[in-house]
């Protein structure tokens, strides 16, 4: 697909090197179910979090190329409306993307990587997992690949601290998605990856967590490989592992949980409703981890209990895990949805259900304490 067929393109920007270390100090507020709301209602998503939709929009605006022309007297083109930003700047962004492609092709030609017929050596695409949020959880290989990229396409759940690792010469392109808002369709993302790889660029696709765990990395890998593009996957620490470790929850434990199951709370249109798997997931000797499950949790919890999972099963919901904005609700399964609502947790929130949750040092110890809200 030619570049002119894209509906719009998010902006690109240069980024400098900085290093930020995360230090989390937890405050714990344990309470009965009836008092959870009053204890946590004042807690709202921090605007400094790289994971909230509000900050995602602000980051999109910040990351724009500041286009200038004589009509604006060399002032940046800025709009307060996200949709207007994309539509107003498309005519300017598209030539810049084409210009970048041309620069990359000329660079390959000067390096002798193109034939007389104009065919250049194809570039590589790296699908890089950035972990659950804390940049210090990046692998050494991920850091090396990020620093060596020409172009990076990044998702909403990739923190600014990770983006700060990008080399000054590289370009960043936001392709994030949230419920009800997709900055790029999956097909557009595929074509962007292909176009720049065909120009010989080293392209990095940055994804939160692990690219092959609910990250659609398999779809992108399959598409590119069918086009003859070499794809390499750099695994990341998936949210289940990183967040569970942060809270001291062993996903498996001898004599308590002999298996772990990852479940998505979303279903693709026309696909199987994730709630249909509740019967198989209601295993008291297994740990259930639900990604993107806030909206479907009430129904899922009810179905799990109907299929035999005890209402007293320990559970936890973790918002923005491993970041300075982490907030956690501990509760029994029967009360988890109510306590999440009272605490006002928002996406992204990971849910862990199983007896192993009770092994966390943060689990409420008193029998009078039915729930616990923990904030970083």
Q: Please, could you describe this protein's structure?
A:
This protein is an alpha/beta fold and 376 residues long. It contains eleven helices and 14 strands. It is elongated and about 70 Å long. It starts with 26 loop residues before the first strand and ends with a strand.
Give the integer mean of the pLDDT values.
75
Q: Rough shape?
A: elongated
Assign the CATH class of the largest domain. Alpha Beta
Physical arrangement of strands within the biggest beta sheet: 1-14-12-11-13-10-9
The CATH architecture assignment of the largest domain turns out to be: 3-Layer(aba) Sandwich
Largest sheet properties: 7 strands, mixed
Helix content: 25-40%
**What's the β-strand tally?**
14
As for the CATH topology of the largest domain, it is Cobalt-precorrin-4 Transmethylase, domain 1
Q: How many discrete structural domains?
A: 2
Could you name the CATH homologous superfamily of the largest domain? Tetrapyrrole methylase, N-terminal domain
Question: Order of SSEs, N→C?
Answer: EHHHEHEHEEEHEHEHEHEHEEHEE
**Could you give the distance between the termini?**
46 Å
Proportion of beta-strand residues: 15-25%
Unreliable segments (pLDDT under 50, ≥5 consecutive)? Answer: 1-23, 31-92
Give Rg in angstroms: 23 Å
EC number: 2.1.1.107
GO biological process, one term: methylation
GO molecular function: uroporphyrin-III C-methyltransferase activity
Protein name: uroporphyrinogen-III C-methyltransferase
């Amino acid at each position: 697909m030619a570049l002119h067929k894209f509906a719009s393109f998010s902006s690109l920007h240069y980024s400098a090197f900085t290093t930020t270390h995360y230090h989390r100090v937890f405050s714990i507020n344990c309470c009965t179910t009836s008092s959870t709301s009053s204890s946590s209602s004042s807690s709202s998503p921090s605007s400094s979090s790289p994971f909230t939709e509000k900050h995602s929009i602000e980051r999109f605006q910040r990351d724009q190329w500041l286009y200038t022309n004589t009509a604006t007297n060399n002032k940046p083109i800025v709009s307060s409306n996200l949709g207007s930003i994309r539509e107003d700047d498309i005519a300017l962004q598209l030539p810049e993307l084409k210009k970048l492609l041309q620069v990359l092709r000329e660079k390959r030609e000067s390096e002798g990587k193109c034939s007389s017929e104009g065919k250049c050596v194809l570039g590589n695409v790296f699908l890089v997992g950035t972990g659950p949020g804390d940049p210090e959880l990046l692998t050494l290989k991920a850091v090396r690949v990020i620093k060596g990229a020409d172009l990076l396409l990044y998702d909403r759940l990739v923190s600014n601290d990770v983006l700060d690792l990008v080399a000054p010469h590289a370009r960043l392109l936001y392709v994030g998605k949230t419920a009800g808002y997709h900055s790029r369709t999956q097909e557009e993302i595929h074509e962007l990856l292909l176009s720049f790889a065909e120009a010989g660029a080293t392209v990095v696709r940055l994804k939160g967590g692990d690219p092959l765990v609910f990250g659609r990395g398999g779809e992108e890998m399959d598409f590119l490989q069918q086009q003859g593009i070499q794809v390499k996957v750099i695994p990341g620490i998936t949210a289940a592992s990183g967040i569970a470790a942060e809270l001291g929850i062993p996903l498996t434990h001898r004599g308590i949980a002999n298996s772990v199951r990852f479940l998505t709370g979303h279903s693709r249109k026309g696909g199987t409703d994730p709630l249909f798997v509740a019967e198989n997931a209601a295993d008291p000797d297994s740990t259930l981890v639900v990604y993107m499950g806030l909206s479907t949790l009430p129904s899922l919890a009810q179905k799990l209990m109907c299929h035999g999972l005890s209402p007293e099963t320990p559970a936890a919901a973790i918002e923005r895990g491993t970041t300075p904005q982490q907030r956690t609700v501990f509760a029994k399964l029967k009360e988890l949805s109510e306590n999440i609502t009272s605490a006002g947790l928002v996406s992204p929130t990971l849910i862990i259900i199983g007896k192993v949750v009770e092994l966390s040092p943060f689990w409420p110890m008193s029998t009078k304490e039915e729930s616990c809200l923990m904030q970083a």
